[in-house]
Amino acid sequence: MGMLDQLMYGFGIALTPENLLYVFIGVLAGTIIGMLPGLGPMSAIALMIPIAYGMDPTSAIIMLAGVYYGAIFGGSTSSILLNAPGVAGTVATSFDGYPMALKGQAGKALAIAAICSFVGGTISVVGLMAIAPSLASFAVSFGPVEYFALMVLGLTAVVSLGGRNLVKGLVSAVVGVMIALVGIDSQTAIVRFTFDLPELYEGVEFLIVALGVFALAEVLVMLNQRGKGGVRKGVTSLRLSRREIAQITPPALRSSVLGFFTGVLPGAGATVASFLSYSMEKKIARDGDTFGEGNPKGVAAPEAANNAAAVGSFVPLMTLGVPGSGTTAILLGALMVLGVQPGPMMLSQNPDMFWGVVASMYIGSVVLLILNLPLIPLFAKVLNTPRTMLVPLVVVFCVVGVYGLSFSVFDLGLLAAFGAIGFLMRRNDFPAAPLILGLILGGLMETNMRRALQISDGAWSVFLTEPISAGLLAVAVLSLLPALVRVLRRRRTPVEPAGSAATADTGDEPEGTRDESEDGSATAPVSGSGSGADGRVPPRD
Questions:
Q1: Which residue in 295, 333, 365, 439 has a CA-CA distance of 20 to 30 Å to 14?
Q2: Model pTM?
Q3: What's the chain's average pLDDT?
Q4: Which residues are paired to 192 by β-bridges?
Q5: DSSP code for 461
Q6: CB 345 within 8 Å of CB 296
Q7: Which of 233, 155, 234 shows the shortest CA–CA distance to 438?
């Protein structure tokens, strides 16, 4: 049976009234859950496993898969409107989505997110059905050495995410890695960076850091501005012009492909894919210097990539039985509970499930688009909420999300602490994106580095002798070169006196001198950045 016949067979399964209903339930639940920090797809799938236990295995996995990519799809809404990422995979979306909302373009930002999510999901489904078996065999070739190199490549994204100051970007990344190392070492059982606090033995939850550094810090910025600037009213239409569609199409297509291949690699997932795609687009775009100020490409790239990666993560899950993320690990458990053993034999032993799930993903992407586009004007009305109501609403949003994780008052204290850290980072022009990326990749880097060194008996040369690892590390080094060249140019260029015309009107050199000023108070130019009425620059994540 050819691939087209198999796909038609899968659509025959997915288009039954019962499975269509489960697709709709899954994506609707996922969309709602993705908007709410604290729940996330992992918790939702875990809670729905008992419901799925009595169902037909194919229908159950179709519904649970819908929850997964629906949550990734829905997480962009809170990232764009409130700068409060509901899902880790949508953190990069907030870098330009929230500044667009501040400029009254929330409708367009949400429309771009919805359309690019659909594009990413669709391209990834095509890739899943076309090259799943061969990609699965390639993914097996990735061991600890290659994964460490991949994480290093991901971490070098701090150069492009760090804005105009390389040092501040690297400092933020190192702090993020340090936060990732807090807790009991899983291999040596040594307690690290806990300050003898038992509450830190299990580490710091990603959600606490993300909500503190982004959402709570935004609340503090609003209060500090005392009514000036802030959220814009008069939300524009969600209709995109031909020029805007032409502008976001190449990033969406490129990021969809990158996201799919990243999702195929076990351990990478939607979060890494979104950061990599954002970094790639910022490097290659002609207007890359406007990323972080409300550039539509900065919304299109991570949204296409995270949805493509969510679908791509089903390749190792279904064909190898290897979960590519925490969420697909829960799905693997669900498959086991339902009596299905994923692996190389799944395509021959359970073709109805494999092709039914593949077809349901495409149907689910269409349902998500139809479901979300009409609701965008309703979502965008959040921005018309008066500041006196919006600030406490965001605070409650954060507190409920964090307290729901572990019902710990200590976690609320951590939330407040990271909110203060995020506020100070913005005041001193330290980017938050590298901190979040370091937090995400830090633990993965340490684990794979240790495994690689154990396999090689402590020989560090193993990272350079393996071809894939050497290639990834070479790309990581090359990605650092442009930033290093800029630093060297700044040092060779004489610093103009403060207030001179050269300082006010020139490009890279004065930006460097502003970032390196003694009080650190000077920031980027205000024009075109959607700044508040008091001249403050919005968060440049």
A1: 333
A2: 0.67
A3: 77
A4: 183
A5: T
A6: no
A7: 155
